Amino acid sequence: MTWQPIKIVKNIKRNQEQYCLLCNIRKANASGSHFVSQCMLSHTIGKRNSYTAYSIDASETSADVSFGRENSPSTIITPNPHTEDYIFCQQCESYFSTLESEGCNFFNEKLRNKRFEQQFKVEDLGDGNNLKVSKIVDANIINLFVYSLIWRMCLQQRLNNYESPINPQFEQKLADTLIPYIDKTKHQIKHSSIELPYPFILLTDDSIDIESATYINPNVIETNPEMFFLGRYIVLMYHNFTDISTKELVVKPELINRNYQNGNANSPIKTLYINQTHWKEINYQFVAEYSKKYLFVVAQRIHAETGISLKNAAEFLQNRLELIKAQGTDALEGINNAYLEIIGNK
To answer: Which domain of life does the protein's organism represent (predicted)?
Structure first.
């Protein structure tokens, strides 16, 4: 099976008579499919029944605040922005569940809970950075889990017609890597020889529970390595090791090291725990680039809804962004609050 990109038409809802967007063979009969595994969303948008997600859709020039499913007088019931019906078949859904069964436990429990410390070797890299290397883990499952997360994130960008720096060839290689193992059992996957086209580095905050804002999004601009934000983790995924640029990533060059990469068959999983200051710098840079790219579009919406001049609206948003940076608060939440404030909805 070779995956082929499917042309996506915005605002046209998919149905279960269409084909699965991974295997392209079976009908897409699964409902409530997650683009991002629920376990990776819990820190970013909260628990299953109580979450808040902030987003600005520049193509529609709108800001949305989505709340969870808990029933209360103040709750606005809106869908989880990372789920969709009829994008995958039941078999591919089961495949993702197989990967998630160990992937979620590894990322949410083993890497963050002190009671699993004996399962890792820790190397002090200086400056508050540490490399944690797993002693007991099935690398194939974790590697494919990461690939499935990144591929589904790219797919979501296409389905929503969001601007994305990820080229189709990159996305296709991710899918081509996933497809051969759709019908395999967990045991078969664990004992397969899996070659990954793109090695990757895992970054996370050095604290047990990250307090600063986290995001679910690819980076705004194309880089090598590509950067993907997955809640409490950041994935740096390489096209190659000959044309590496860290300037746009704000990642310290010493952290872009082949010795820290994942992707080799049967190699232990490595995770970089970086100091909190650097973690916040990387996340803020993403939001700053995003906001600069779309600030004028948001200002246009403010102008259309309030009559405020484009110049004044843009200055208001820019000043608010600088204030957010100085305060060290959640940039995306602040930008959304600024938008809602100026149009009188707060």
So the answer is: Bacteria
Spatial distance between the Cα atoms of 190 and 314, rounded to a whole number of angstroms = 53
CB 248 within 8 A of CB 260: no
Q: What is the pLDDT of residues 217-255, one digit of tens each?
A: 788 777 788 889 888 899 999 887 667 665 566 788 888
Which tens digit of pLDDT belongs to each residue from 182-192? 999 999 999 99
DSSP letter at 268? P
The number of folded domains in the chain is: 1
Residue 242 included in any domain:
no
CB-based contacts of 61, cutoff 8 Å, min separation 6: 297, 298, 300, 301, 304
- Cα–Cα distance between 157 and 153 in angstroms, integer? 6
| Any domain includes 78 | no
Nearest alpha carbon to residue 286 among 211, 217, 209, 200: 217
pTM: 0.77
**Using omega within 30 degrees of 0 as the cis cutoff, is the peptide bond preceding 225 cis?**
yes
pLDDT, one tens digit per residue, over 133-189 is: 998 778 999 999 999 999 999 888 888 766 666 888 899 999 999 999 999 999 999
Domain hosting residue 311, numbered range: 285-342
Residue 120 belongs to a domain: no
Instruction: Give domain status of residue 56, yes or no.
Output: no
